[in-house]
TrEMBL record:
Gene3D superfamilies: Bira Bifunctional Protein, Domain 2 (3.30.930.10), Nucleic acid-binding proteins (2.40.50.140). It is found in: Cytoplasm. Its EC number is 6.1.1.22. Belongs to the class-II aminoacyl-tRNA synthetase family. InterPro entries: Aa-tRNA-synt_II, aa-tRNA-synth_II, aa-tRNA-synth_II/BPL/LPL, Asn-tRNA-ligase, Asp/Asn-tRNA-synth_IIb, NA-bd_OB-fold, NA-bd_OB_tRNA. One of its GO terms (biological process) is asparaginyl-tRNA aminoacylation. It holds the Pfam family tRNA-synt_2. This is Asparagine--tRNA ligase. It comes from Liquorilactobacillus capillatus DSM 19910.
Amino acid sequence: METISIIDAKKHVNEKVKIGVWLTNKRSSGKIAFLQLRDGTAFFQGVVVKSNVSAETFALAKEARQEESMYVTGEIHEDTRSHFGYEIEIESIEPVGASQDYPISPKEHGVDFLMDHRHLWLRSKKQFAIMKIRSEVIRATYEFFHQEGFVKFDAPILTGSAPEGTTELFHTEYFDKDAYLSQSGQLYEEAGAMAFGKVFSFGPTFRAEKSKTRRHLIEFWMIEPEMAFMHQEQSLEIQERYIAFLVQKVLDNCQYDLKLLGRDPKVLQRYTELPYPRISYDEAIELLQKAGDFPDVKWGEDFGSPEETYLAEHFSKPVFVLNYPKAIKPFYMKPHPTREDVVICADLLAPEGYGEIIGGSERATDPAYLEAQIEKAGLDKADYQWYLDLRRYGSVPHSGFGLGLERAVTWITGEDHIREAIPFPRLLNRIYP
Ligand code: ATP
Ligand code: MG
Ligand code: MG
Ligand code: MG
């Protein structure tokens, strides 16, 4: 008899198998017990019929406690009523680890309570499905960039300077110097692009976001590709192919997880259709002004969540908003060739209210321009000499972008809060567990 995982049940229909499981819930009468089981690969039901098993086995089934671990042995049958499609008719139970009173019962709990028990809450169905999709998005990211000829090139997490503005910065000590936790690996990725042509990084990013929103984590994971000899138009093509690829891989490989979440695959399928619309920041402002619901919107300001939601809903697809005002974007973006006031950049806004999932741009190539920008931004020039070297020795047109992993996962899974898209979220008032 084979020991298998629940996910492989379909290969063992009408065979006798053994599975290591946890009990998530149970229902029983005098004659039959239904055990809801999970093993980390899937959830399914075990059925224990009193007349078919020993008195001892039936007693174990009836008395088993939530989250108790055990080996169950029995035959796999089809079960067309469940999401999973199979169940096990249990013949014997071998207890492994006892369980105390489990704090999370199937009834509703408040978010704070669940967050305090995140280490246990992660065992639940919805959390399971989201983490599986997160894992698939990461796997597909590596597949996509490797097949496109990118080199994985990691940026440091401890840095001596901060390109994205200083208010959201985490400060720490680096022996006798100041250091900061990375807010973006981008400048280092540019060095990578000059050495390897096409690179991408994937790593944690830290921002001391002072406001509570459904889209901001304090610690999140970012994928940052950077490409040499590449203008913004080609970068946008890579971005949309990458996003469509991620969505398609989730559709192909995470059907069970989408079912557990109740996420409609037809909605996701639409996001695999390319190209995504492109509008300029100027056009976006016009659209918002015409809509009438945004009286405060004026040229020169960044969009908030309601504006981003409106723009992507307007197209019911992800939409690129191009060429934002220079004054609200970081120093390294390429100035527009014919306009003083905007830079060559784009944000990709996701539909259904998820907002910006990608921020990207073509990078400035002229060392004198960059040096002036660094000064204007109030940054210490000494910290950026290495960065200016990238322009002093064979500067080339280059572009790149950053995708927030958890933003993308929240959108693909249809969740309403980003805290669900990472195992242990760091939020404004939370660093436990
Ligand atoms: P936002 O406007 O939503 O605050 P941003 O413009 O500050 O985002 P960028 O600096 O452009 O963000 O970072 C690139 C990507 O990283 C964003 O498009 C988003 O997907 C993600 N991101 C940014 N901040 C956060 C955060 N606090 N939590 C999770 N993801 C984030
Ligand atoms: Mg921000
Ligand atoms: Mg933004
Ligand atoms: Mg941005």
